[in-house]
C-alpha cells in the first residue's frame, strides 16, 4: 500500500524538494545574467550555497539564515535580480517559525536599511519614485517572510493547545464515566453480595452452633461471596483511583500482597515524572495483574518485580518461582496484551530464567532525547 501524499512529501523529502526548487531558482537567475552579460566563475558559489544549506534548517536554523543572507549579499554586485533573494526570504521565515525572533528581526531591519542606503547610493543620493518603489518592494517582501513565519508558528501553537485541550476534555469525560460506573457497580452489586455473604455466614454459624457440619455448598457460597467482594473492591478502587504517578506506588502495591504468604522483591528505579502518563498507567496495571495472577495461580512462594529503563523503553518484569504450567489466556492476560499493543510495545508470558515470567516492553523515549529528524528542533528557552 502506497503512502498518502502528505506522508510522501514530509520531513527530509520535503526539505530536499524545497532545496531543489530554490537551487533551480538561483541557478536560473545566474544563467540569465551569464547569457546576457557574462557571469564570473566565482559568482556561482554564492548562488548555490544558500539553497544547499537549507536541509540543515531543522537543527541549525540560525546557520541557514546567516549563510542564505550572506549569499544574497555576496551575489548582489552580480545584478542577478530578485530571484536570488528567495532562499534568504525562506530562511527568514524558517528562523522566525522555529523561534529565533531576535536574529530574524535584526536581519530584516539590517537588510531593509542596507537596501535603502544602497538604492540611494546608486541613485546619487536623490530620492525619487523609482528608488522608493525598489526599496519598498524589497522591504515589503522581507517583512512578508518575517510575518509568515511568525503567523505559522502561532497557528501551530494554537492547534497544539487546541489538541491538548481536547485530550484533557476526553480524559475528564473518561474519569467521570469511570466514577459513574464505579458508583453503579457499588450500588447494584456490593449490597447484594454483602447480603449473600452475611446470610451464608449466619447459616454456617447456626449449623455449627447446633453441632452440625455445614453443607459444602453453603461453605462454597460464603467463600465465593468473599472472593467476589474482594475482587469488586479492587475493581472499584481501580475505577475511582486514576490520578498520580502509578509506578511510584509499585512498592505500596506489593505490600498488599505480602500478607498472603508470598515473598515479594521489588526493584523499581524509574523517574515517574519523566514517563508518559499512558505508559505509566499501563506499566502499573501490568504489574498489578501479574502480581494477582502469581498470588492466585503460582505454585511458588516468591515473586520478583523489576521495572527499569532500557534505552527508549520501559521494561516491566514480574516473575514467580513456581513451575510454569500450561498457559490459559484469561481476561487478565488479554487485557495486558491489549495495553501493550495499544502503546506499540511487546509482551512475553511464559517460562523465564526465574520461573513463570510476565515481561512487557513499553516505548517511552527520554524527554531530553534529541528531536526526531522528521520533526522540528527543540526550541530554546530564549532567543
Automatic annotation (TrEMBL):
This is histidine kinase. It catalyses: ATP + protein L-histidine = ADP + protein N-phospho-L-histidine. One of its GO terms (molecular function) is ATP binding. CDD domains: HATPase_UhpB-NarQ-NarX-like (cd16917). It holds the Pfam family HisKA_3. InterPro entries: HATPase_C_sf (IPR036890), HATPase_dom (IPR003594), Sensor_HK_TwoCompSys (IPR050482), Sig_transdc_His_kin_sub3_dim/P (IPR011712). Keywords: ATP-binding, Kinase, Membrane, Nucleotide-binding, Phosphoprotein, Transferase, Transmembrane, Transmembrane helix, Two-component regulatory system. One of its GO terms (cellular component) is membrane.
Amino acid at each position: 500500500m502506497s503512502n498518502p501524499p502528505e506522508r510522501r512529501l514530509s520531513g527530509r523529502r520535503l526539505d530536499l524538494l524545497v532545496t531543489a526548487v530554490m537551487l533551480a531558482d538561483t541557478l536560473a537567475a545566474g544563467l540569465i545574467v551569464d547569457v546576457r552579460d557574462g557571469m564570473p566563475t566565482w559568482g556561482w558559489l554564492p548562488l548555490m550555497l544558500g539553497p544547499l544549506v537549507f536541509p540543515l534548517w531543522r537543527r541549525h536554523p540560525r546557520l541557514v539564515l546567516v549563510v542564505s543572507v550572506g549569499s544574497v549579499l555576496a551575489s548582489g554586485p552580480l545584478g542577478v535580480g530578485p530571484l536570488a533573494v528567495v532562499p534568504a526570504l525562506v530562511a527568514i521565515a524558517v528562523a522566525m517559525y522555529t523561534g529565533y525572533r531576535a536574529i530574524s528581526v535584526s536581519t530584516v531591519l539590517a537588510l531593509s536599511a542596507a537596501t535603502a542606503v544602497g538604492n540611494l547610493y546608486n541613485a546619487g543620493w536623490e530620492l525619487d519614485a523609482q528608488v522608493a518603489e525598489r526599496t519598498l518592494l524589497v522591504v515589503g517582501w522581507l517583512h512578508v517572510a518575517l510575518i509568515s513565519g511568525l503567523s505559522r508558528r502561532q497557528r501551530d501553537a494554537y492547534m497544539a493547545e487546541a489538541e491538548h485541550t481536547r485530550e484533557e476534555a476526553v480524559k475528564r469525560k473518561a474519569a467521570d464515566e469511570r466514577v459513574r460506573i464505579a458508583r453503579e457497580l457499588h450500588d447494584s452489586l456490593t449490597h447484594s453480595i454483602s447480603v449473600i455473604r452475611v446470610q451464608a455466614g449466619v447459616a454456617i454459624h447456626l449449623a455449627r452452633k447446633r453441632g452440625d457440619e455445614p453443607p459444602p455448598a453453603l461453605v462454597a457460597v460464603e467463600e465465593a461471596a468473599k472472593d467476589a467482594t474482594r475482587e469488586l473492591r479492587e475493581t472499584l478502587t481501580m475505577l475511582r483511583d486514576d490520578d498520580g504517578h502509578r509506578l511510584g506506588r509499585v512498592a505500596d502495591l506489593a505490600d498488599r500482597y505480602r500478607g498472603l504468604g508470598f515473598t515479594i522483591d521489588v526493584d523499581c528505579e524509574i523517574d515517574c515524572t519523566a514517563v508518559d502518563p499512558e505508559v505509566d498507567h499501563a506499566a502499573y496495571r501490568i504489574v498489578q495483574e501479574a502480581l494477582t495472577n502469581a498470588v492466585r495461580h503460582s505454585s511458588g512462594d516468591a515473586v520478583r518485580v523489576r521495572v527499569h529503563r532500557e534505552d527508549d523503553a520501559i521494561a516491566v518484569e514480574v516473575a514467580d518461582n513456581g513451575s510454569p504450567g500450561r498457559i490459559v489466556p484469561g481476561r487478565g492476560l488479554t487485557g495486558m496484551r491489549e495495553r501493550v499493543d495499544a502503546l506499540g510495545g511487546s509482551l512475553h508470558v511464559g517460562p523465564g530464567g526465574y520461573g513463570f515470567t510476565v515481561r512487557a516492553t513499553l516505548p517511552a523515549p527520554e524527554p531530553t532525547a534529541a528531536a526526531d529528524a522528521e520533526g522540528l528542533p527543540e526550541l530554546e528557552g530564549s532567543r
